[in-house]
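Supplementary notes for students who missed Thursday's class. We covered one full example, reproduced here. Read the sequence, then the structure, then the short commentary at the end.
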Amino acid sequence: MPLLKHAFCPGYPPPFDSLVADYPGEDVYPQKDFRTEWGPIFHRGRLDGSAVVLVLGQDPATHESVSRRILVGEAGQRVQGLLAKLGVAHSYTMVNTFLYSVYGQGGGSRHEHDEHIADYRNRWLDALLDGTRVTTVITLGMLAASAYQSWLGSRPQLAAGLQHTALRHPTYPESASASGQKTLAAATEILLSDWNAHLPELRSHVQPDFPPTATVYGNSWQEGDLARIPQADLPPGSPDWWFELAAWASRTGKDTQLKRATIQVVVPTRARTWPVLTPTGGS
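Structure (token representation):
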């Protein structure tokens, strides 16, 4: 078989094909609290049974709405860097607590215990964790930890075989500093200290793809702490700059309605490799 030039996510094999064909809509996710207009975004990573780590996040954001895979933006690149410190390059899969992007302050918390949201999410967790190679579940933030504990309550027989590591959410620094009670630098140090504290237990439970290093985090983000999203995680034909560390998508608009309806996508500066042409006239 010839070596493929471009890797890509192959899509959804059974039983995941049935799950993506049977997702809940606005009857379960009210539009006042979720951006259902941008559609459901299901996962990122391996669905072929090779995953040994499951990452449970919160909800998709701006970059995810365009790329149709979760944890692709800043949060995803921070998580990708964490996995690299564990020696995990590809044996992972990721799903979110919520299928749609949360809209507004407290939208997620208001639906933390919604039965129908949990029912669909638990079907994914069943498929990913029951009888698979996954040994470690990493939850990002309180809502994800709560969602996982809720699933465990219905499947207690699986609890003994799974290591659960609850981490602060990768964008904790930005959310914690937004209120002005902490500086961004102080909140970043809190996050990285939390992640450092859990690295030993993660390394002891995860079967790595390559030998992990003893590298830990400093008091702030350093070179190598963030990692590009692998090409094999995104749909076929995804442009190379979708994997970049530079941000390329943002919500814009002069009022809340237009901002909710608009995502601006801009090719990052260093990805603009086309020749510069001088107009010769006309338009």
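Commentary. The beta strands are 43-45, 53-57, 92-96, 136-140, 163-167, 249-251, 263-265. The radius of gyration is 19 Å. If anything here is unclear, bring it to office hours.
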